[in-house]
Amino acid sequence: MELISRPRRLRRTPALRAMVRQFSLSASDFIYPLFIHENRENESITAMPGISRWSLEGLIRQVAIAWDLGIRCVVLFPKISDHLKNANGDECLNESGLIPKAIRLIKQEYPGMAVMTDVALDPYSSDGHDGIVSKEGIILNDETVDILCRQAIVQARAGADLIGPSDMMDGRVKAIREALDNEGFQDIGIISYTAKYASAYYGPFREALDSAPSTITSKPIPSDKSTYQMDPANLREALIEAFWDEHEGADILMVKPGLAYLDVISSLRQNTKQPIAAYNVSGEYSMVKAAAERGWINERAVVLETLLCFKRAGADLILTYHACDAAFWLANN
Ligand code: PBG
Fold this sequence. Notes:
Blueprint lengths: L13 H6 L10 E7 L6 E2 L7 E3 L1 H13 L4 E6 L19 H12 L4 E6 L12 E2 L5 E2 H18 L3 E4 L6 H11 L6 E8 L6 H7 L26 H13 L3 E5 L5 H10 L4 E5 L1 H12 L5 H15 L3 E4 L2 H9 L2
Parallel strand pairs: 1-3, 1-4, 1-12, 4-5, 5-8, 8-9, 9-10, 10-11, 11-12
Antiparallel strand pairs: 2-3, 6-7
The site of ligand PBG has 11 residues, from helix 6.
């Protein structure tokens, strides 16, 4: 054949392939999510093989492992005891609560590790929603934002580096930015869950925190989060969210879930200069683990391929439960 172009020429050897490779992964791309609880024992999470709710001691051990692998950011999620939950999620304002305690401990032991937090009421709410639920079953926006600002300040005081509002209330980035600035935290960043979809992929996470919408109260509590999280059918709406988050002062924009939403990442990439994070969520993790346990896929290859594809789609950072495994595989190639 007389061909003008033979693209296979550049695929012929590992050296040539490496020369023209566009994207790569490194441990510093990862943000490692960690579940914590008040107990002294670590407790494995059935739906997420390899992941536990860590005691504070277990948490520090995980941070040490992550640090040694080159990971430089962790994000904390608390499992709060039922007796500390109420309708307004007041425990999120407790300066000596689980999250502030954990942040201080990490900062004391590993001051160089960046700590990201989650701002939302669901772990603390007896109703299991990210915001306050009115007696009519409406998730109240402005009243919730008020509490979220105070929650963010508690986290910043404890030493958090990046505040991560995951609640999807309108106007919360601006309000949190102003609240942080007023308290002298102008250098603490906001990584906003910008395009967070109402997704069934969060199932294992809600098991981990026991934070699913409640079914046992007298209020008509919505069974899903679709009045504040986005409809999976929508793409343009993600650009509206991104526009506002950016203008309200978000430092990093996040898309969540990740895998089924690569087009959203790509779209945001073309519409903003801010760094973009992808959240490779619990359900995505569990699917890979389940197939790997059955020997149906090569876990290492699938995980590294998936994470790389987030980069190709336009993400700079990836929140992933595979962070430590992936960092280990990258270092031992
Ligand atoms: C809650 C929150 C959720 C996740 C992160 N923060 C769950 C939800 O919105 O119900 C999900 C993360 C995952 O599934 O890994 N504000």
